[in-house]
Design a protein that fits this description.
Rossmann fold, Transferase(Phosphotransferase), domain 1, 33 helices, 17 strands, 5 domains, Phosphorylase Kinase, domain 1, six-stranded antiparallel β-sheet
Amino acid sequence: MLDTTVSHYRIRELLGEGGMGVVYRAEDLRLRRDVALKFLREQVSQRPLAVERFRREARAASGLNHPHICTIYDVDEDVGRHFIAMELLQGFPLQQRIAGAPLEPALVLELATQIVDGLEAAHSKGIVHRDLKPSNLFVTERDRVKILDFGLVKLLEAHPDVSPDATTASSRAPETAAGLVMGTPPYMSPEQVRGDDVDARTDVFSFGAVLYEMATGQPAFSGRTPGLIYDAVLNRSPTPPGHLLSDFPAELDRIIVKALEKDRRLRYQSASEIQADLMRLRRDREQVRVDRAPGRAQVIESIAVLPLANLSGDPAQDHFADGMTDALISDLARVRALRVISRTSVMRYRGSRRSLPEIARELNVQVVVEGSVLHAGDRVRISAQLVDAARDRHLWAESYERDIHDVLKLQAEVARAITREIQVVLTPQEQAVLGKAVTVNPEAHQDYLLGRFHWNKRTPDGLRRGLEFFQRALTKDAGYAPAYSGIADTHLILSVATYDLVPPSEALPQARAAAQRALEIDETLAEARISLANVKARFEWDWAGADAEFVRALELNPNYAYGYHCFASHEATMGRFGEALAHQERAMELDPFSIVVGSGRARLFYFARQYERARAQCRSALEMEPGFWVAHLLTGLCQLREGTPEKAVESLERACSLGEGLTMPLAARAAAYAESGQRDRAERAIEQLLAMSRERYVPAYQIAAIHSSLGSHDQAFEWLERAFRERSETLTWLGVAPFWDLLRQDPRLADLQARVGLPA
């Protein structure tokens, strides 16, 4: 079947085979993602009862959205071939992980806790697996367990979540009829062997058999024939693990023995009951480890929230999962005692196969949060796990579910739980912020998340689409402060020199009004204060007012990388290079893989005339994103000041090619033409920009820069005066930008700096 198309799936690779089915890796041609396709064997497809059982597996599992249950996307038939499309997993079945040898007790506890968490979720929906075994438990490359194959599932007739139709169908199916033995012999419960009715306790027994095998490396029940295995299940107790292994935890031994009680009335009565004992044992073992360790226990000071997985199966919901990731990061970022990695840097790990210790080393953090989001109808469920990254060891796991109107309360509740678990002491202000009872219009919140999704692309089209979604959010909730902040940020970026898509006279009043409105609604919103600070610094030239807003914003959100980045730029324009570099380094710590923050560091080195360091920083940015035109621009500007205009032309040609008609790279290239002796090409560039100005906004500052390089100082100052009247943001760089060193001896430059309010 390789390289054939089934329905809208292209078969790529055989993954494995079982008694009833064959599994392939395939590409979903509609959604452009890899999936696993499980096909019934051809001979099995001829048996109606087997087909019904196969479909029942899909129906049961598709209703379970949980981090430790394999997600079912689709069930279909194509030319008589029945198949299920499901989540593609990377790793190995637990059977291969055990491979006849005991696992370390810490890993046994880690995996066992995840398995019972998934079982508890299934049982809460009235679903019993009935075929739990190591080959139906998949361990990913990060030691995360996924439960597979709910093919022998039975819906509990008494459970309120089960529809009457489903219950009737289940009870009538011959596979579930009393007296019929179904399952895999070494992992079946006594009631299964006898053909009695089963309930959730049968999964507890099977889990006990799996737990025994993880702990000892050998099955709990074995024999040369199925009959001998059935006899062992019914009449013989396995040797307790503590009798087979030295130093085996006594409490874990007790848990296994209780799970394998043949009388289900004496067994653990639920997955949640056994989960509580496992988690208590993990806590106690960790406490012993801490008590025995020299000195104090480790203080947690740094954390990263990895992208929350979208469990809906709908790629259109990716923005919602990203938005919830953003929100959780933002809530934790308000805690001054923590260093919280920013969104830009964690998003690169979406779908990554790197281990958690690798990710933690790259981000330089101690603990990592990973989890998932399910948005279905009017409900939102977040499942989160806290992991000690150095040891790749679970510290805490929990799931939360709320009405969509309470989504902000939900994310704050998760943030509070995390701070409690890592024992961070919150200030009264931080407690108040994380404890605020906030409701939100779900449609407005969805539009806001879509707005940030597009805004973060930082493309002209992305910025415009982001603005549309922010404005749409306000039509549904006129008091939604984050949407005003998004509008302010968008107008600011549209009018800065990097994009120059909108005249400052048009964009700035709207940016200021939106930022102020956001702060009227929520004065603690750090993002809006940074927006207002940028308005004051870049366009109003209110330097003292900008300082105050930057300081206040970073008090409210001491982990706001973009805020430190903006503050550093402001301080550099004022000639405070020591403070600027310190704040830029802080931004880099919080957002190490942001090319925007990295280019800000390069610009500081450029302003400081440290051209080699600036170019090195640009090279680092281009390693992450070769198409980042700003890095090519800064490289060219450095080469220009280093006296190699021919090299500068090459770099700036690349910036123009990638900058899609933006005026800044065009003007910089023209300046390089002028300084390399190609005056005619520089003059033609001026004509090109003037022609463009009849169709769109072209900053006067750019034309002034070309005249300066041509040696036409009078024309340069004429265009700088126009830039002053435009209130151009780029005039804030007059005092520090090396580009204007050609005019430093002219008193008109000092006069212009003074009118802008810059220090001499």
